[in-house]
Amino acid sequence: MGCYRTILVGIDGSRDAAAALMHAASLARDQHAKLILLTVMPPPPPQVASPGALPTPPSDGDEVFAQILREAVETLPPDIGVQTRLARGRPARRILETARETDCDLVVLGFHGHGRLHHALAGSTSDSVLRASCLPVLLMRAAAQPAPRAPGPPPDSAPDEARAATA
């Protein structure tokens, strides 16, 4: 038996979260652990009551976040045990609460790395979880995509005359 029995994976539909999920799936397979996939919907905006105002109908946000979870589950091999959770609230807080409630041994999250300004203004879910968690937290980034090249022949296919002139 491995050291991880239950691994919580935060899912938000990003490439980094997908990389975190694939790594967590590999760990779950190696450790014979189950995965708990969690996505957190932001809290609804405050409702301002005014005379004659109609209540705002619920948005399709629930369905969007549920779809993110379904698509994540579809990427997993069938031999990995998985549960899904959909929560509403502040993401870092809900991740930590769910990890405690489900007796997780590890939290795996994607790490977007937006930069200092974004972090100062909006904060970082992964940073908040990392600082507040008593559990091990594994942060993953998606592999960098190669920069697009200019059209034309590849750099190593220069004409033989040009190669001879530079040799």
Blueprint (SSEs and pairs):
Elements: E1 6-10, H1 15-31, E2 34-41, H2 61-74, E3 82-88, H3 91-101, E4 106-110, H4 116-122, H5 125-132, E5 137-140, H6 160-166
Parallel strand pairs: 1-2, 1-4, 2-3, 4-5
Helix pairs in contact: 3-5
What does this 3D model show about the protein?
With 167 residues, the protein is α/β, with parallel strands linked by helices. Helices cover 38% and strands 17% of the residues. The chain has helices at residues 15-31, 61-74, 91-101, 116-122, 125-132, 160-166, and strands spanning 6-10, 34-41, 82-88, 106-110, 137-140. Strands 3-2-1-4-5 form a 5-stranded parallel β-sheet, with helices on both faces. α1 links the parallel β1 and β2.
Strand content: 15-25%
Number of helices: 6
In N-to-C order, the SSE pattern is: EHEHEHEHHEH
Helix content: 25-40%
Structure summarized in a few sentences:
With 167 residues, this protein is an alpha/beta fold.
List keywords for this structure.
globular, 5-stranded parallel beta sheet, alpha/beta, 167 residues, 5 strands, disordered C terminus, single chain
